[in-house]
Design brief:
The chain has 380 residues and is α/β, with parallel strands linked by helices. Helices cover 40% and strands 19% of the residues. Strands 3-4-2-1-5-6-7-8 form an eight-stranded mixed sheet, sandwiched between helices. The protein has a six-stranded parallel sheet with strand order 11-10-9-12-13-14, sandwiched between helices. Strand 10 (235-241), helix 7 and strand 11 (258-261) form a beta-alpha-beta unit. The protein starts with a strand and ends with a helix.
């Protein structure tokens, strides 16, 4: 199969994090059968075009949108896969006339009103409001067009994402599926936890947005230091990078039982931290799934997260904690400290539940079967 995947960026040796979930998908498709896959990183006119490169078997090319259309025509792929649809892709899709699958992850399909927590960004947030208003208007027009074709499908990573996107865009697509992001449960293998690991708490977050609620997590740690007389027996490892890092971690850096790591991590480094900790601290203000949370669950960490957005679709009270504020986060840590058997049970349940919901068969294979279906329908 000849596949072209389109988005705004792809992992590289210099930037390991950008759209890693797309890379996991493309590698997964090649596990089913060998495909010709090219990733097109689309840049706005006037932006510098980086050099093309190969990353773990995937060819990455950089184009402006007009030149991308000409390249795709010559390459003649069997299908187009698009992540983070931008309205500038509309003409490309109409021109190429190939089967298309569009993944909806959140940022590109939700109203700016759902991200008021980022208003602290000032002028950049005002610009976001303007761009978002145009994006949703154009997205609505595109869905109307997509509904006139049978070879365009939308994939949502959660039911919450589907419902909110259709609401905010103001149009419902006729062809869609809900398929979670793939969690590599082989790599993030389950390691049975020992009771003592309930005292070891890990947080790995991007500190560039309040979306990830790092301020709430840190407030919970401060709360524990005040109310829990065994606080000094706990070990916290806080990992992240971003504009909020210095200001937020300043509140806890004086504690001797807290390790601060201001960097991005490779998958191998993340897995090593998973294996050396027992609790994954991951509150959120908004998530369409929570991939890093699901990866930690796969490794057997007990998630302490938030009761909002798509999170309850992936975590229940048997497999973790759904909290509403920093005090409930602190209480969850205390409960597991006082009841190690609860920690052990939730750890096993977390690993088992995520394997049922986001394993290879439920994600990559479903996506691949949808691709085959759309291609085959063109050939009839």
């Amino acid at each position: 199969m000849k596949i072209i995947t389109i988005s705004y960026g792809y992992p590289s040796k210099e930037n390991l994090y950008i759209n890693g979930f797309i890379h996991q998908r493309l590698k997964g498709y090649n596990k089913i059968e060998k495909n010709e896959i090219i990733f097109l990183s689309i840049k706005e006119n006037g932006m510098p075009l980086p050099d093309d490169y190969e990353y773990e078997g995937i060819n990455v090319k950089h184009y402006y949108i007009k030149d991308a259309i000409e390249f795709i025509k010559k390459y003649d792929p069997d299908i187009l896969l698009i992540h983070f649809y931008k309205y500038q892709y509309f003409n490309l899709i109409k021109t190429i006339k190939k089967p298309v699958i569009i993944w909806v992850h959140g940022y590109e399909a939700l109203s700016w009103k759902r991200r008021l927590f980022n208003i602290f960004k000032g002028k950049s947030f005002i610009r976001y409001i303007y761009d978002n208003t145009i994006q949703l208007k154009k997205y609505r027009e595109f869905i109307k067009y997509a509904n006139s074709r049978d070879d365009i499908y939308f994939v949502f990573v959660s039911n919450w994402m589907k419902n909110i996107a259709f609401n905010d865009i103001g149009e419902i697509a006729k062809n869609y599926k809900v398929i979670p992001n793939y969690i590599d449960t082989d790599f993030f293998s389950f390691k049975e936890k020992m009771q003592n690991e309930r005292k070891k708490i890990l947080l790995i977050r991007n500190f560039n947005s309040k979306k990830y609620a790092t301020d709430i997590a840190i407030k919970a740690i401060v709360e524990l230091s005040k109310k829990f007389n065994k606080f000094n027996e706990l070990e916290f490892t806080i990992v992240g990078k971003g504009v909020l890092w210095k200001r937020q971690t300043a509140k806890i850096k004086h504690f001797p039982n807290i390790t601060l790591i201001n960097k991005f991590l490779t998958h191998k480094e993340i897995k090593k931290l998973h294996d050396n900790n027992g609790i994954f601290l991951c509150p959120t203000r908004q998530d369409s799934q929570g991939v890093s949370m699901c990866e930690a669950m796969s490794s057997g960490l007990v998630p302490i997260t938030s009761y909002n957005t798509a999170i309850p679709e992936f975590v229940n009270e048997d497999a973790g904690y759904l909290t509403r504020n920093y005090k409930e986060i602190a209480n969850a840590i205390i409960e597991m400290y006082d009841n190690p058997e609860i920690f052990i049970e939730k750890s096993k349940n977390a690993a088992e539940s995520i394997r049922k919901k986001a394993n290879f068969k439920k994600t990559i294979k479903e996506e691949y079967e949808l691709m085959k279906k759309l291609i085959n329908s063109q050939e009839v």
